[in-house]
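Duplicate of #3305? Posting structure anyway:
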């Protein structure tokens, strides 16, 4: 849960690098929270307002941690635009996000593995 909170604390911080664990824990908690909200909305009969509000609330932190994760692998945040390429873009970003950190400092900052 600390990883999730850390990403939210860095709400719109696009500079620096994000550890692989930081990114994937944020994704995992987003999925769990979204599923929980979906179940509650289905039981209550809500039209999906809470889910939409949650999605809007975590949109910018999600983009920011994705850009920082790309920086950690030595890539520009512009690679996030690959998501607009059907199927291939998703697979490409999945591979990039799963790669290990670039060792040592790079142009985006020090290696986050040294921090944690």
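Output from current build:
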């Amino acid at each position: 849960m600390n990883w999730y909170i850390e990403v939210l604390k860095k709400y719109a911080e696009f500079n620096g690098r994000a550890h692989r664990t930081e990114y994937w824990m944020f994704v995992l908690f987003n999925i769990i929270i979204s599923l929980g909200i979906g179940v509650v909305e289905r039981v209550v009969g809500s039209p999906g307002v809470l889910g939409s509000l949650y999605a809007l609330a975590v949109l910018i932190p999600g983009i920011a941690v994705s850009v920082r994760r790309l920086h950690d692998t030595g890539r520009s945040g512009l690679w996030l635009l690959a998501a607009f390429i059907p199927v291939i873009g998703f697979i490409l970003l999945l591979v990039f996000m799963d790669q290990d950190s670039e060792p040592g400092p790079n142009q985006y900052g020090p290696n986050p593995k040294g921090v944690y």
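Confirmed duplicate; merging threads. The radius of gyration is 15 Å. The mean pLDDT is 92.
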